[in-house]
# Entry
Amino acid sequence: MLPIPFIRQNPEVVREAIRLKGVRLDLDQLLALDARIVSLKTRIQDLQTEKNAISKQFRDTPKEGHAALRARSTDLGDQMAALQPDLDAAEAELRDLLWWVPHPPSPDTPIGPDDSGNVVQRTWGTPPAFSFTPLDHVSLLQHHGWAEFERVARVSGSRNFALKGAMVRLENALHQLAWDRMEASGFTLMTVPNLVRGDALLATGHFPAGREDVYHLPEEDLYLTGTAEVVLTSLHGGEILDEADLPLLYGGFSPCFRREAGSFGKDVRGLLRVHQFTKTEQYVIGPDDPEVSALWHQRLLELSEAILQDLELPYQVIQVCTGDMGMGKYRMHDLETWMPSLQKYRETHSCSSLHTWQAHRANLRYRDAQGKVRFCHTLNNTAVATPRLIAPFLENHQLPDARIRVPERLRPYLGGRETLG
# Structure
């Protein structure tokens, strides 16, 4: 959310952000509502000022004049009462519109309508050249009996799965490797609940635009989260943190749930796009300093790159364009890992800076060294998301006999094993 004073003072900046991010929002309607609210508040304040002045006149007015003063005071109170419903309705309508106001993107963000406008910044590693016909990850899982798809689908529906045997240990090992990397970088690991109230999803920006992708439990009016970011953003909401304690670095670990309502039949086979998954999320709460945020954005990106390098997985770094980055993002990069079966890179990590956009929504604040209360900056990036990362891991490290080579840095987390299968 952008504060209304910023919108008033920078309407063309906001209008351009609306255009670049493809948000369906009538800024003129929002500004007209804001002007109406200001006018109504001014009128009510003027009436209240006159009413207060009348109250002071009683002491110096003869008793025969009190009736007229009371009548005028009552009339002023009635006028204020008549205006209040209009003010309440206008403020509610404005709040609904403010949820849709996007954050202007950084000046270096590529301009584009969708993912076709994303820009490859760099690559790491070389896609494997197999001397045999490689299998895709589903065939590898089925060959070893490492997953259940059809049986689970009968129980839980499509896009659900169960990992078995070595894959359970592999999934755990991938997260443990990430945890060690994160703790060495100063992150505090934290498990978070999956159930949240709707206002937590409004705070992160997953609502109102992404409601169709979130599972809702109507009896409790709670929602299943698709990322630990949802809980971590609101964890300190309403508090006033001390600048000396910033940045707060969290490694949020949790199961995650997404309906994948907008995927339109994409990636229905295998582990790339499923309804339930497990993720370790990097999350930063920092001061209102764009330069500090830029440094942390780079550190989050480097940490995820280090994890992929530990796993010896070829990847590319993508700078996400305006039309693909989401309403609240100031700057966004994706890491895409090579998928041999698809002969292309697929997203496994997403790194975002949101400046104060989430903090205004979550009331996430701190007191600076001068004693001024300010809104925090928030950043997030995937550390490991499974089973999505398992798919390229299996495909890139498969051997001619369908065994899976374990990279050296991962072996300590798998009992020293050099291969799986």
Q: What stands out?
A: The first strand starts at residue 119 and ends at 124. The mean pLDDT is 96. Residues 66-98 form the longest helix (33 residues).
